[in-house]
Prior knowledge:
By secondary structure, the chain is mainly α.
Amino acid sequence: MRNFESWFLDHKNEFSNSESVGMLEDAILCYHADIVRPAYLLSYQAMMIHFRYLVLNANKPPLYDEGRWKGILAKLRSETEWDEMTFTATQQKEDPSASKYAILSIPNDIRPQFIYWRSIRNDCAHYKGNRIIKAHVQALWSFIEQYIFTFTVDGGITTLLQEFSDFYNPAKTPNDADITPLLEKIPLRVRDEEYDDFFSGMGRTISQYRYGELLPFMNLILKGENMNVKSHLILFIKNNSLQERLITEYPEYVIEFYTEDTEIRELWFQRLNFIPNAWKIFSILLLANKIPTNQIDEACEKILSNFYKQDIYIGNLSLEENHILTKVGYFDKFVETYLDTAFTSNISNMSKICNSTNFYISHLNQMELTPTLVERIIDVFSTQYPYTLRDRIIPDYLKANETNEALLNKILSDNSLTLPPNLQN
């Protein structure tokens, strides 16, 4: 069992006591000498003594009262009771309704394995006639190698929620404390059937102390590497209709939560009306090819219409997002529809345009200033035009900075163009 021996040598210093280390060293010697029963007995005792001292050296879990915890420790110190108490520690599950809490954070599907290891121990100790072979020792060693350092004295979901409560409570934990150790406990302490209760409890806990921190907490899990925890969170978010709140803060997750064609169409057709950062979400959908080619024109028109009605200011587009919007003709549609003299000179549109200058200026600032665009602006302001738009287009776009102004002057000069008098102020 060279693999176990190598692992043991690498992890000797992580055991809770020297007695366990000595027993495993002797167990390995017995194994190589083909003395199998003592090899198993020593390995089993080493494991249980490790858990004995792990509990003895631990801090009291938050949900245990002093009296009950002292009773557990007293039994673990007793030379006649420690073995049974340690085994109880491997079996005791959390049951808040009965005021019972786990002693060791062992997944419930793993706890029965200790019953099996104990039964083999009894066969070894009492020579009950069952054949004990090296495979039994190898199986126990494999279990020790896989699990012995993953079990801690932390309790279950109720205790974990209390620990998160203490973390988010500013009276107990500073705001810059590292949450990583707590996040790492989630897959060890929460059973699959408990995730709904856990995430609901986290929502209540976080809102009690740090309103607005729930989404950053979810983001940490979604960015993490544990796929089981992540999949449970995604399901929880969908079941509780939290995905729109999440993609408002973290638009990159839109691909995780909207996978069906009908969901995606409903999102851009209707739901983006109510979501800040809608332009980023829309561009991410385009980048991921989530909008069918034959629907892209319709989608651009719908998004532009919604943004115009609500005077949405688009900003913070990455170069990649800007490029995809340009590529699919989004900005061309903006110019054709909303920067067209037939539209801007229409008396019935004047009031709305004057109240939608954020929409206009932010879109123009995402576009490259070209001779064609300059000509379009000249056309718009050479006839009847919305005064508020004129008041903003000069300081906030054409002459917003030296670069824009220099480029504008070059385009005018190179193409023999002249700004109308109302844009020369």
